[in-house]
């Protein structure tokens, strides 16, 4: 029975990544305005944190609140889903630790890091896309 739970968590994680990817593609294609750019304050904040790989997602957690835009809370929903997926997987690992080989644990760890990065990148995209300013007319004419 634990095997089915393990595959259920993997399936939910894969579905989460696919849905997030399709949503991002659609949103960027349909809802992104061509005559805007990210505000300098927000761009500078992300430039600072992006110099610290792996931990940048954690460092950027306060940004949706700091740089509120429309639907600013959406990244927190995705972080919550990520946390629930990780908690479900951790519970299965904890209860059936001896069933998993070192290779399986390494693969799952890599999957967790990928899911973390996908969630972090979504959060960054969302904050950047919520904090757009119009490009000045003079710079468009040059």
UniProtKB/TrEMBL annotation:
This is Uncharacterized protein. It comes from marine sediment metagenome. Keywords: Membrane, Transmembrane, Transmembrane helix. The chain crosses the membrane at residues 7-29, 76-95. The keyword Membrane applies.
């Amino acid at each position: 029975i634990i095997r089915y739970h393990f595959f259920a968590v993997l399936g939910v994680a894969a579905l989460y990544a696919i849905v997030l990817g399709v949503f991002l593609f659609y949103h960027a294609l349909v809802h992104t305005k061509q005559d805007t750019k990210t505000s300098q304050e927000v761009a500078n904040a992300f430039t600072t944190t992006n110099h610290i790989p792996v931990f940048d997602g954690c460092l950027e957690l306060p940004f949706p609140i700091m740089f509120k835009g429309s639907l600013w809370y959406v990244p927190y929903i995705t972080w919550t889903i990520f946390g629930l997926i990780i908690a479900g997987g951790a519970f299965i690992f904890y209860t059936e630790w001896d069933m998993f080989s070192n290779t399986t644990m390494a693969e799952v760890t890599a999957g967790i890091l990928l899911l973390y990065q996908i969630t972090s990148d979504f959060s960054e995209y969302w904050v950047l896309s919520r904090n757009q300013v119009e490009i000045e007319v003079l710079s468009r004419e040059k």
